[in-house]
Amino acid sequence: MSSFLPGSELSSSFGAVAAQYDAARPGYPDELFTAVERLSGRPLRGARVLDVGAGTGIVTRLLRGRGADVVAVEPTPGMAEQLRRVSPEIPLVRGDGDRLPFADGSADFVTYGQAFHWTTPARSVPEARRVLRPGGALAVFWNVKDRTQGWPREQEQRLIAACPQYHGYGAVNDSAPELERLGLSVRRAVLRWSRSIPVEQALADLGSRSYVAVLDASRREQVLTAERAALLRVFPDGVVVEDFDLDVTVGVAA
Fold it and tell me: Which residue ranges form the domains of the chain, and what is each CATH number?
């Protein structure tokens, strides 16, 4: 997991594509937060939430909309700057999950939306446990594109060939054993949802992926041009339909 750590080439790539990331990445259905409440056994409304690896604030804003008292925690300068531009009302702290700059027992939830893989669990889970109050919960979740068949599977094969640092996620992430091993009581859910977006947004989303963002400009343009042609063969009307498995793992502290 060391290639994912804060400060690595991959993690540092997001600063240059922060606005693109904010505009093009998928959000999350409201069912996600209902599932987090159900799995944790406590409400988000009024809860103190540390949204770690907040990026441009996609999850943070949704948590705030659920009534949470949320603080964004983000290490990458470009992403933090975009969050400040878009959501200046949200408190922002520069930091990462392996070294949370918060007092012991100061939070009800620690959340990671599409971000837990950038941490070292042997450090980030104990840090989450330290800052959580008794009964508090660590919630980690990923939108995972269904690549089991059809065009998403074919796209993944092209990306593996074109991007030396390509990394994907399975329909079920591997965080649960780490959380259990480090002393949390784990509950899980997988939610199914989809979105329909213009092909140019799909390409902007792809271009914001770290394994594409680190390519040199010429190679990146080649990859995106090839993907535009491939997507238009499948979606000639220019509207891309993406199906996701939203993997949710919640670890509750004693």
Answer: 2-145+169-194+244-252 (3.40.50.150)
